Amino acid sequence: MSKASFSLEGKTAIVTGANTGLGQGMAVALAEAGADLALVGRSAPDETVGMVEAAGRKALVIEADLGSLDPVDGIVQETRDTFGGVDILVNNAGIIKRNDAIDFTTEEWDAVMNINLRTLFFLSQAVARAMRDAGKGGKIINIASMLSFQGGIRVPSYTASKSGVMGLTRILANEWAQYGINVNAIAPGYFATNNTAALQADEKRNAEILGRIPSGRWGDPSDLAGAVVFLAAPASDYVQGITLPVDGGWLAR
Ligand code: NAP
Predict the structure, then answer these.
(1) Distance CA 240, CA 49 (A)
(2) pLDDT for residue 178
(3) CATH number at residue 171
(4) From the CB of 131, is ligand 1 less than 6 Å away?
(5) pLDDT tens-digit series, residues 84-125
(6) Residues of the signal sequence (predicted)?
(7) Closest Cα partner for 129 from 90, 76, 174?
């Protein structure tokens, strides 16, 4: 297999929530593999822009609050206007709310479902329409979770949303393979980011989590580089509808 199978030279990728954490790690990995980046989110991704440019690629910043669908069409339009098209979408932006299921509020439910599932679907739809119209196919990569496979505790809307992400990944692969679009997901295990700050700070939970990870450490955002580049590159052209765990062995335990 040639190196070209893993090259993203000449491609354009949209990554949501790329100012920090896993989104930043994946955006930089895609840039290092050759892609130009549209970085979408509500906080300025200055550091990520610097990292993308240091990799020799272009970065477009699109400010958008993905808690609503209002910015969806504009994100696709601005990316096309700047780079001429869109080849890769990474649906990374997401939030978590912790509360006992018995006390969970409609606000906690809606906030998580809106960004983690509703916007993920309609942004994917808008990008898939652009890919279909351009006739060159494309790659959509959703960020799932261990809670796509497991129930978890005190995070009902997060578990519902991430279980939904795994299901959506399958149906969209089924429907959009005909356009040459691959839809797959990555399920990160326990990664050290803002999203897991509360867990890392809780001595008991931290020890329990580490005790179950065969690799013996929290994941670093750079640990997703191989998976995201693979799923964005020609090397994965015959891979459809999977949710790939990158978890240091958590699920194997
Ligand atoms: P993070 O550091 O909290 O980053 C989340 C990203 O989503 C940030 O860029 C954030 O922007 C953005 N975001 C949140 N709400 C938004 C909104 N309304 N509009 C636009 N952007 C918004 O968390 P992370 O760990 O990197 O998480 C990234 C993804 O991985 C999420 O989908 C998460 O569920 C998933 N994940 C994480 C882990 C883990 O162990 N860390 C494990 C499994 C799955 P702001 O900075 O502006 O809030």
Answers:
(1) 30
(2) 98
(3) 3.40.50.720
(4) no
(5) 999 999 999 999 999 999 999 999 999 999 999 999 999 999
(6) none
(7) 76
By DSSP bridging, strand 59-63 and strand 88-91 are unpaired
Q: Are 146 and 196 in contact (CB under 8 A)?
A: no
Cβ 23 under 6 angstroms from ligand 1: yes
DSSP SS3 for 147: helix
20 CA to centre of ligand 1 in angstroms: 8
Q: Work out the angle between the directed axes of helices 106-113 and 156-176 (0-180°, nearest 10).
A: 30
Tell me whether residue 92 is in a domain: yes
User: Where residue 3 falls among pLDDT bands split at 50, 70, 90?
Assistant: confident
Closest protein CA for atom 11 of ligand 1: 17
Virtual CA dihedral for 134, 136, 137, 138, nearest 10 degrees? -90
Task: Report the number of distinct structural domains present in the chain.
Answer: 1
pTM for the full predicted model: 0.98
Rg value, the chain, Cα: 17
